[in-house]
């Protein structure tokens, strides 16, 4: 169990190449082992097959040796030569050696028994042969003749025995050979079957092992594909081994985690920024509101008091119709101011306010101001920010015609031009230097200086409100030909506003 | 899951390899044992030499002798059996002596050469037991067989049974071995004649002995057929003194459609002969207990080897088998064969 665990642990840390090599080497070794073993067994059997006919061969040798004995004996009998004698002894020796190898015990095996008989007969024969030689040497003709005949007969009989034994052994050997060949064939068949089986198991092993190696890779690929498709909400891939795939899987897991975290942080940041922007926008609008309110509130309360003082004086002096009219205008003027403090208004209302204002001024300054207006009836309903005409007229009164000796004139004209609505306030008063115009347009002139009789809604204020209201598409221009040559303030607003409003 | 599969595969592979090793080992060993025939060795080597006729009778004798010998730790070889050349009995006898065996069992006769050989063997210290036929004048240690005269008496009684009561006429032909040295045949013939004479007085039917040519390998069969081919020669009773003659006579009687006209008296109880008796083609057969014979031969040799002497005659039982008994014997043998299966 511990070994298994240890092996599993070792396995975990092998690289892909090592794992694959291990598998292939293992399977190859298995096949090799089977082959080698089969080869060894087959070889051993083949050797045994070779041995099968060895006994026949040795029997043939025995028969040859016997022939040699008989021949040499005959030769000696014929010639009585010492060569023949020598040959006889040699052959006798050889034959004795050979017959030593034969069985000499009674056995219930035909072959062994025949061997025993051959051995016994051979001994008798050799003795006989020796006697023959002895008799020949002793020139005992009668005796050696008889003995030779006996020896010859025995020689033939031994041959018969050897021949028969040879036959028997051959039959036996052939049987053995057949049996050997049969089992050889059987073994070959078995070997092939087992080899095939082993190969089959090997293939399965390779398939399973390669799958074990590639499966995490496939899993990784699938998950990577999913991530590539944009889905970062994938589960962590379990890391099963510490090979390359394991490392890549770990890295991938970490990468996906990091990306996810990064995206999360990015989303949070964006949300925060959005909130910030929203707040900023709201603040801006609030600011605009505040600015408007503030600008509208900048109208000088001194003026109100002065006017009310004038009205009161008039009422005290006469208690007449004109006073009433005057107060009516005053009321209208202030009502407008109060009502329109934070809203836009139609041009008609603005023009009426200018009328009221001029009336009040004319009452104040006993008809000094000649006011005329020329208004295109089609534009009366166009909506503009409130309190933009009156400050222009007020400026024209205060800076244009107030300090001139001649009769002061103010002209208001509203008309269409090139799809735009032009609102022009002209006076014949003091006029302006171009430098002064630039300063006014740039807002560099503080209009609400303390002690000034302006009601506070100065040029800059009007310009700002026009810009905010028309998103910068309105235009305010000041024209003057120089000192004492009058001033014209021209406001151009986009005409489509009118259409939108009239709809 | 994968690990499990891998483990299983590895286990299967190991198993396969083990099976392979065991199987191949087994194969190798099987072949080896096949190649190396098993055998036992014995202290003594006896030989049994029989006539050229390779009959069931001698097989039975040999088998029982071998069984008995094995019990005694001796092996008996059927000498000359596996040889490429068919040697005569005497040649084989001589070879056995030259091969210095430990004991010889041989059917004897009164031939001089045979007697000389037997004597030579005994002089060289090889005890000789004659079987079935004796060489009474030799130095043989023992004769195992029946009394030929008694056998003749038994045949005589059978002849009397066959011969018609009234006339008691007819011819009896006894098939005898060509070998003149076989005196036992004469004793048998004497037994027959004397039995007939005892019963019928001087007026006995002709009992002629017919020599069967034994010289060639198949000459016995030819000479027996010759009898059937010559109607003049055809006897009423044909008496066969050995198993081969009985079979030949039986086959010839069937072939020449002489069943009934000639009564055959047979010898031995091989299945063929028993069948013939059961079908009444052969009138009756006399058998010797071949197993007993084989046993006794070995016992005689062993007794001599151990004690230095033995009975010079051991009698073997004879038995007459008629039709009914033949049937019974056949049934018995079938029964034992089936039970053996």
Written account of the structure:
The complex is a heterodimer of chains A (503) and B (341). Chain A folds into two domains: 9-218, Up-down Bundle (Four Helix Bundle (Hemerythrin (Met), subunit A)); 301-502, Histidine kinase-like ATPase, C-terminal domain (Heat Shock Protein 90, 2-Layer Sandwich). The longest helix of chain A has 88 residues, at 141-228. In chain A, the strands form two sheets. In chain A, strands 3-5-6-8-7 form a five-stranded mixed beta sheet. In chain A, strands 2-4 form a two-stranded antiparallel sheet. Chain A is rod-shaped, with a radius of gyration of 70 Å. Chain A is α+β, with helices and mostly antiparallel strands and 503 residues long. Mean pLDDT of chain A is 81; it is low at 447-456 and 497-503. In chain A, a hairpin with a 6-residue loop joins strand 7 and strand 8. In chain A, helix 6 (141-228) packs parallel to helix 7 (244-297). Chain A has helices spanning 2-12, 16-52, 54-79, 82-100, 110-137, 141-228, 244-297, 301-317, 321-339, 347-364, 389-401, 434-442, 459-469, 496-502, and strands spanning 106-107, 344-346, 369-375, 383-385, 408-417, 420-427, 475-480, 487-494. Chain B is α/β, with parallel strands linked by helices. Chain B has two domains: 44-145 and 291-317, Rossmann fold (3-Layer(aba) Sandwich); 148-267, 3-Layer(aba) Sandwich (Rossmann fold), CATH 3.40.50. Chain B has helices spanning 2-35, 56-71, 89-98, 112-123, 148-162, 183-200, 219-229, 243-255, 271-278, 290-307, 323-340; strands at residues 41-42, 44-48, 74-78, 103-106, 128-131, 142-145, 171-177, 206-212, 237-240, 263-267, 282-288, 313-315, 318-321. In chain B, the strands form two sheets. In chain B, strands 3-2-4-5-6-12 form a six-stranded parallel beta sheet, with helices on both faces. A six-stranded mixed beta sheet of chain B has the order 8-7-9-10-11-13, with helices on both faces. In chain B, helix 7 (219-229) packs across helix 8. Chain B is globular and about 110 Å long. Classes of the chains: A alpha+beta (503), B alpha/beta (341).
């Amino acid at each position: 169990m511990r070994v298994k665990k240890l092996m599993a642990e070792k396995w975990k840390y092998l690289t892909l190449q090592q794992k694959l090599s291990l598998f292939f080497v293992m399977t190859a070794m298995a096949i090799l082992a089977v082959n080698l073993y089969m080869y060894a067994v087959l070889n051993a059997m083949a050797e045994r097959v070779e041995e099968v006919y060895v006994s026949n061969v040795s029997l043939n040798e025995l028969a040859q040796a016997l022939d040699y004995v008989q021949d040499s004996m005959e030769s000696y009998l014929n010639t009585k030569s010492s060569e023949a004698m020598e040959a006889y002894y040699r052959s006798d020796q050889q034959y004795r050696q050979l017959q030593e190898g034969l069985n000499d015990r009674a056995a219930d095996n035909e072959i062994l028994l025949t061997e025993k008989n051959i051995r016994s007969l051979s001994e008798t024969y050799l003795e006989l042969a020796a006697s023959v030689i002895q008799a020949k040497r002793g020139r005992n003709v009668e005796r050696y003749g008889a003995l030779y005949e006996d020896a010859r007969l025995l020689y033939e009989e031994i041959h018969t025995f050897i021949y028969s034994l040879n036959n028997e052994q051959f039959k036996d050997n052939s049987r053995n050979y057949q049996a050997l060949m049969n089992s050889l064939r059987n073994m070959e068949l078995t070997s092939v079957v087992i080899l095939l089986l082993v190969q089959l198991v090997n293939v399965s092993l390779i398939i399973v092992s390669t799958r074990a190696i590639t499966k995490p890779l496939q899993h990784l690929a699938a998950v990577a594909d999913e991530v590539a498709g944009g889905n970062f909400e994938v589960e962590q891939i379990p890391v099963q081994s510490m090979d390359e795939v394991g490392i890549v899987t770990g890295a991938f897991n970490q990468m996906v985690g990091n990306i996810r975290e990064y995206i999360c942080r990015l989303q949070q940041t964006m949300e925060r920024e959005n909130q910030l922007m929203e707040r900023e926008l709201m603040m801006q609008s609030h600011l605009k509101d505040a600015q408007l309110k503030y600008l509208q509130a900048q109208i000088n309360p001194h003026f109100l008091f002065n006017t009310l003082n004038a009205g009161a004086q008039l009422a005290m002096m006469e208690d007449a119709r004109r006073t009433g009219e005057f107060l009516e205008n005053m009321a209208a003027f202030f009502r407008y101011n109060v009502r329109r403090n934070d809203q836009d208004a139609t041009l008609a209302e603005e023009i009426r306010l200018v009328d009221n204002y001029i009336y009040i001024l004319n009452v104040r300054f006993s008809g000094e101001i000649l006011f005329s207006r020329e208004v295109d009836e089609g534009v009366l309903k166009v909506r503009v920010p409130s309190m933009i005409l009156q400050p222009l007229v007020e400026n024209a009164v205060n800076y244009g015609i107030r300090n001139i000796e001649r009769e002061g004139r103010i002209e208001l004209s509203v008309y269409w031009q090139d799809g735009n609505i032009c609102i022009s306030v002209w006076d014949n008063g003091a006029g302006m230097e171009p430098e002064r115009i630039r300063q006014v347009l740039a807002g560099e002139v503080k209009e609400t200086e303390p002690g000034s009789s302006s009601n506070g809604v100065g040029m800059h204020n009007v310009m700002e409100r026009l810009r905010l209201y028309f998103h910068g598409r309105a235009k305010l221009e000041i024209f003057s030909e120089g000192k004492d040559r009058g001033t014209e303030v021209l406001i151009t607003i986009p005409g489509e506003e009118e259409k939108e409003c009239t709809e | 899951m994968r690990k499990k599969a891998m483990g299983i595969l590895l286990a299967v592979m190991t198993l396969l390899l083990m099976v392979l090793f065991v199987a191949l080992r087994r194969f190798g060993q099987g072949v080896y044992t096949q190649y190396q025939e098993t055998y036992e060795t014995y202290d003594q080597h006896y030989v049994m030499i029989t006539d050229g006729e390779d009959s069931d009778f001698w097989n039975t004798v040999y088998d029982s002798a071998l069984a008995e010998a094995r019990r005694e730790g001796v092996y008996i070889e059927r000498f000359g059996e596996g040889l490429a050349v068919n040697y005569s009995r005497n040649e084989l006898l001589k070879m056995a002596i030259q091969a210095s065996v430990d004991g010889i069992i041989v059917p004897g006769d009164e031939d001089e050469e045979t007697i000389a050989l037997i004597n030579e063997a005994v002089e060289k210290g090889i005890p000789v037991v004659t079987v079935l036929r004796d060489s009474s004048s030799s130095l043989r240690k023992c004769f195992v067989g029946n009394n030929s005269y008694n056998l003749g008496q038994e045949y005589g009684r059978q002849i009397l049974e066959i011969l018609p009561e009234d006339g008691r006429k007819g011819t009896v032909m006894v098939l005898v071995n060509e070998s003149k040295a076989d005196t036992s045949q004469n004793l048998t013939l004497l037994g027959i004649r004397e039995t007939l004479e005892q019963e019928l007085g001087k007026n006995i039917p002709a009992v002629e002995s017919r020599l069967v040519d034994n010289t060639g390998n198949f000459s016995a069969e030819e000479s027996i057929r010759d009898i059937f081919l010559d109607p003049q020669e055809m006897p009423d009773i044909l008496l066969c003194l050995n198993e081969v003659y009985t079979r030949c006579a039986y086959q010839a009687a069937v072939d020449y459609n002489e069943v009934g006209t000639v009564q055959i008296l047979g010898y031995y109880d091989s299945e063929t002969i028993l069948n013939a008796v059961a079908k009444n083609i052969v009138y009756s057969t006399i058998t010797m207990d071949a197993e007993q014979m084989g046993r006794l031969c070995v016992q005689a040799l062993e007794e001599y080897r151990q004690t230095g002497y033995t009975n010079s005659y051991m009698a073997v039982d004879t038995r007459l088998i008629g039709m009914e008994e033949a049937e019974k014997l056949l049934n018995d043998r079938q029964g034992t064969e089936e039970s053996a299966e």
